[in-house]
Specification:
241 residues, Rossmann fold, 8 helices
Length: 241
């Protein structure tokens, strides 16, 4: 069985995703990538009616459902909300939460306001939020932390504006290697993706008075340059006062 597992893992690495390239220098050039005006429409094609009507089969939403039902509170802020489609997903999951969303892309926020005129959306940087301390029961950092070079400040800001819980979703996580940086091609654009060492990440949560109370994983993948898998994880943290 051990030998078989080794063969399987070797095959997986041979077919590893090739859109990643490990990088070390000139990382700042990726800071404004998500403000590219072509990205929102391309993403909308992936998160349109087909996706929203079949969320029960989506592995990412399945893993997050378990996290969402572990929280209590009335308000939620989504950081990195893109076109705001999670406001609809939360309703489809039966969660009665007062939702707000923010994103630093003007084009994404314009699209979100067009699609969901009943919700509140703001243009805002995840590392410099304009909300007051303890503004929301839950802060949902939605698959954006691994794109933010100054992720330390983004974590601190999420913790500051949360009253109870913070959800960091879709985090690309390593168990053996230190935190490393990669370039990924998505929506026809080269962008930054950070692979976090889990121990380093949890230590950073602790420094911001966040206790991890639940972790789950939706899937994993390999890249050619690494011998270990990269897990996609969700972290539910509780704010310790």
């Amino acid at each position: 069985m051990v030998y078989l597992n080794r063969i399987i893992n070797k095959i997986k690495r041979l077919f590893a995703k090739r859109q990643y390239r490990l990088i070390e220098n000139n990382l700042e050039k990726y800071n404004d990538v998500w403000q590219n005006e072509a990205i929102p429409e391309k993403q909308l094609k992936l998160t349109g009616n087909n996706f929203l009507n079949n969320i029960k089969n989506d592995r990412t939403v399945k893993s997050l459902k378990e996290i969402f039902f572990a929280i209590n509170g009335e308000t939620i802020l989504e950081i990195g909300c893109s076109s705001g489609y999670y406001s609809e997903i939360l309703k489809k999951l039966g969660l009665n939460l007062k939702y707000e969303g923010c994103d630093y892309s003007q084009k994404f926020i314009a699209l979100a306001k067009q699609k969901y005129p009943g919700e509140k959306f703001e243009i805002m940087d995840a590392t410099d939020l304009k909300y007051e301390n303890d503004s929301f029961d839950t802060v949902f950092n939605a698959r954006c932390l691994f794109h933010i070079l100054n992720y330390q400040k983004a974590i601190a800001e999420s913790a500051r504006v949360s009253k109870k819980y913070i959800i960091f979703s879709g985090i690309t996580t390593l168990h053996l290697h230190k935190t490393i940086y990669a370039e990924k091609t998505a929506y026809g654009v080269n962008m930054l993706e950070i692979f976090f060492n889990e121990n380093e990440l949890v230590d950073l949560f602790k420094k911001n008075n966040l206790a991890v109370i639940k972790i789950n994983s939706s899937h994993y993948f390999y890249i050619e340059e690494l011998t270990e898998p990269i897990f996609i994880k969700n972290y539910l943290c509780k704010k310790i006062k």
